[in-house]
Specification:
Nucleotidyltransferase, domain 5; xylose metabolism; ATPase_NBD; 3 domains; carbohydrate metabolism; ROK_cs
């Protein structure tokens, strides 16, 4: 069990703290009004939160219309603690150190870095070591690290990773033995959705479609991830697109991600053009040169994705679907193609857009996940 050093346990403390975070600056009297707690309870809780330096007094506020003593305003200490986030793809690692409010202090990126069960621990330790050199001073230091895994995760266990073999490694146990702060593992698409919810979106029912080597969907409702049994919810890439189609590492044939994942598009363009290697930058170059084969490929890609997106909209009825993909981010017309295809009446009011967090949406989600755990606030909103 995680010690109280790494979490705000008491529900009323979390409730008061959340009101302070959401209101930026607030008086004790207003906290009592919003929380329905009496003034003595609010005073006791705010004193405790001040003692542990999670909040601080900012200034003397204005008197109310009926006069009386001017209130002392309270604010969240955004630099009270630090968070670590790692996004571990099969061929890259992205990482960030941030304050508790998600402000990134330092970030690192390694592209074209093949990750496997043999080198994952070394790469993670090296990354953490580089991130934590010369840490800024904070009252609580690092309060947790969340790792984004490209595969099925449940209760800190990696169940299945189709494109690398991290499911052969007990990463949680290994890392927990190495670090004093809590370790969390979660699916990459889930974290992308949580990042959007926490830092960018005004909507409470949100789906994030994440496309890399595979395709996954993160589903968030009121700050809570919808995980399903063993973390299987949202595995949209393993829904059947083509009966009896291409073999998939999951054991099925014809899975959506075998036709619409980014890596599949790159492979098809590589074969069309006789290239040695294709990534999103190469794809963009051909698109900007108005290459007809590339345009046709993007149309096909968008049509395939629109089928999966339409299906998940019908299942979960979100207010908004955000897409986390280097292709849609760099070639925004693909979003228009997708919206053109998702036209049925039941989906007409659903917003479909690129993630507002750019290429860092998964990292922001990992930061949000740790912050939720530490502060014990489920509907946490940290965006301005």
């Amino acid at each position: 069990m995680i010690s109280s050093k790494y979490t705000i346990r008491e529900q009323n403390e979390a409730k008061i703290l959340n009101f302070i975070i959401q209101n930026k600056e607030i008086s004790r009297a207003k906290l009592s009004e919003l929380s329905k707690l009496n003034k003595a309870s609010v005073s006791s809780i705010t004193k405790k939160l001040m003692d542990i330096e999670l909040i601080f007094e900012t200034r003397i506020g204005d008197s109310s219309n009926v006069g009386g003593r001017k209130p002392i305003m309270l604010s969240f200490n955004k630099k009270s603690s630090l968070l670590l986030a790692l996004d571990i793809g099969y061929n890259y690692i992205e990482a960030a150190l941030a304050y508790i409010d998600g402000t990134i202090v330092k970030s690192l990126s390694q592209k074209d870095k093949l990750i496997s069960s043999e080198n994952a621990l070394f790469v993670i330790e090296e990354t953490v070591r580089n991130l934590t050199a010369d840490l800024p001073e904070t009252p609580h230091g690092i309060v947790g690290m969340t790792l984004a895994i490209h595969g099925q995760v449940s209760n800190e266990e990696i169940i299945f990773t189709p494109y690398y073999d991290l499911d052969q490694l007990d990463l949680f146990t290994e890392l927990s033995a190495r670090y004093a702060f809590p370790i969390y593992l979660e699916n990459e698409a889930n974290l992308s959705a949580l990042g959007e919810y926490t830092f960018s979106s005004e909507y409470e029912k949100l789906i994030a479609i994440s496309m890399h080597s595979g395709i996954g969907a993160g589903i968030v409702e009121s700050g809570r991830l919808h995980l399903g049994k063993d973390g299987k919810a949202g595995e949209i890439g393993h829904t059947i697109f083509q009966p009896h189609g291409k073999a998939c590492p999951c054991g099925n044939n014809g899975c959506l991600e075998r036709y619409g994942a980014n890596e599949v598009i790159y492979d098809e363009l590589r074969e069309l053009k006789g290239l040695e290697k294709v990534n999103s930058d190469v794809l963009v170059r051909y698109y900007e040169e108005n290459d007809p084969e590339t345009f046709t490929l993007l149309r096909k890609y968008s049509d395939i994705l629109s089928i999966g997106i339409n299906n998940i909209i019908m299942m979960y009825a979100p207010e908004i679907v955000v897409i986390n993909s280097s292709i849609t981010r760099k070639i925004p017309i693909t979003i228009d193609f997708i919206k053109d295809r998702v036209k049925n009446r039941l989906a007409s009011d659903v917003i479909i857009k690129n993630t507002s967090l750019g290429e860092n949406s998964t990292l922001y989600g990992a930061l949000a996940f740790t912050a939720q755990k530490y502060l014990n606030i489920e509907r946490l909103k940290l965006g301005e």
